[in-house]
Amino acid sequence: MYRFYLAIRYLVTRPINLLGMLGITLSVWALVVVVSLFSGFMVVIEEHVRETSADVAVTNLPLWADANKLGRALTDDPNVAATAPRLVHFGLLHEAGKRPPPPPLPGRSALHGGDQPFLFVYGVDPAQERQVSAFDAWLTSEEIPAAMRVADPSRPFATANDRAQVLVGLERMKREGLARGDELVLTTGIRRGGEGRGEFQQVAIELEIAGAFKTRHGGFDGNILFMGIGELGRRLAASDEPGPAEPSPTPGTGNEPAQGQQRVQEIAIRLHDPTAVDDTARRLQEAVFRTLQRRHYGYGLVETWRARNADFLGSIEHQRWLLKIVLFVILVIAAFLMLATLSMMVTEKTGDIGILTSMGGTPGGVTMTFLACGLTVTALGVALGIATGTVTSIYLEEIRQFLIWATGVDLFPLDVYNLDRVPCNIDGWWLLQVTGMAFGTGLLASALPAWRAARHDPLISLRGN
Amino acid sequence: MTSPVLTARCVHKSYRLGKTEIPVLRGVDLEVQSGEIVALLGASGAGKSTLLHVLGLLDPPSEGEILYDGRSVHGLSIRERARLRHDHTGFVFQFYHLIPELTALQNVLLAGMMTDSVLRYWSRRQEAKKAATALLERVGLGDRLKHRPAELSGGERQRVAIARALLAEPRVILADEPTGNLDSNTAEGVIELMFELQRERDAAFVLVTHDEGLAVRANRIIRLRDGVVVG
Q1: Considering CB atoms only, which of B82, B99, B120 is closest to A360?
Q2: What is the distance, to the nearest Å, from the Cα of residue B221 to the centroid of all Cα atoms in its chain?
Q3: Residue A132's pLDDT is what?
Q4: Interface of B with A in 150-209 (CB under 8 A)
Q5: A201 is in which domain, residue-wise?
Q6: B175 to chain A: which residues are within 8 Å by CB?
Q7: A348 near B CB under 8 A
Q8: pLDDT at residue A197 above 80?
Q9: Does some domain include residue A56?
Q10: What angle do CA A155, A156, A159 make, to 5 degrees?
Q11: Do A100 and A240 belong to one domain?
Q12: What is the pLDDT of residues B12-57, one digit of tens each?
């Protein structure tokens, strides 16, 4: 009993111990708030990425693959709700007769849509695409101004002339001052000739902007164009005649689709149960290999949405880990502060060690007295830090609004990240981990002074003042 | 015949200073009977305080043995020795050694907490408080219960220390120059109080002093010189 009684008395009579407690509180608060904010940010980013990625996609399909047969094999799986073919190409977008804009400066992040001229072109079938993604919602977003809105979202690529209709991301439209009906050129290239041979040929596809699309993933909006899959396939095929030295390809064995067959490079898949995505992806991979007869290594890879964005999501997760490490250092510094104040207290209280021993105390009891001091400081610091950190995390948006009102400074500009409010995800497991880390460091910081107190010879303090 | 409450048999104690062995006690034999007042008299450096610490199990003898109620304490664990120290002996020191953060009442109560768990103490806290208050009233500090040591005079502090030593109702009180830091009037009052309490409780009393006038009031005087009992 005396250990805890004395520990509390020692603490309440020494306000300097508040320093250690405040240090722990501050570091725990930072660990909770910053990680909750970052976790919230990750959740939102994942949602945004997820929105623009099908649950599963079969990628790297060879041109000779029979997309219809493959589609039937995929829809045989009980968890597959819908499939949509895509043709993925690339190119430089620019005005007719003008050079493409220069490449972006180093450091410009693709996350925010970038300003690079190099783009990916997704050839899609709108009817099928809206079965696997939020394609309709992207075209009818309320953020799209009337002058940039697609005339008929049910037939976005319908055209009255011979120019290919294209959908451009809203931010790019705004940035480059584009409007519906503007004419642009996509300069791209295709390879002429057989597999492993041939040369690239420049191709210019004349485009007309059918309207803007808007997702919540800035990187997607900034780097993707949508075209009708048939139109894109035709434009590429028209320039894709084999050179005179090339042998005529044999359908099903060379690099050409079979006659009358649509060019498909990728099949996007929506699942009935997205939580079973990994198991489904494994089954689909087997189905694709069976259908393709595994003739070419690297073709027909089945990837989940998470695997497709692994680098991007991984880099954010990596940043979160770095943040955790940096914030943990603050906790260690707070523990050093506590160690210093407890050491001072032990030096001051050596006189008490003698009298405690004479009354029946043991070195273990003396150790526990000072350990109890440190652990009490830690417990109070952790409790305060967790409580204030949780409340701060919950009201982050309100705090941001208040700071803008009071100082005019926006600490977290939402439009940069396509967010509606400051994200926050308070993870109970992380709170437990923070508590554990704080108690671990608190215990280590208390153990040294407590051990020093226990080693003190009680007779030295009893022999005289 | 009952065993002495405290026995020292051929106790030697020496300290090592670098490579030199410094003998402090050299074969001390001593028996203290229940209810007896024994004065340990000797000049500074004679080994009085060291003998008191050895008798109180604060310092183990280099040779010889200590017996409590006829039972040797040799070979007891740290915890067992601490428990025995708590139950069997009470200490009063020259410099009081009160804990400055605690009031007079809390300092006395602390002695009652030493061997109790939190739950056990909580269940008997009223009883412990009553006993501590009664003791403080007995030593004349009934109106000073909530005063901290810094707010008490030297004599009052020593009275608190005496009350603290008596709370666990020990068989032996070991007092190391309890009046050495007090003026003569206050010292007289403190000594009178100690002797009264000793009679009331029939506890043995080992009193270290170099004051001949005080020593003659004891039942027996043991003189120490250079670590040896000389009379």
Answers
A1: B82
A2: 17
A3: 92
A4: 164, 168, 176
A5: 85-265
A6: none
A7: no
A8: no
A9: no
A10: 85
A11: yes
A12: 999 888 888 889 999 899 999 988 999 999 888 888 889 999 999 9
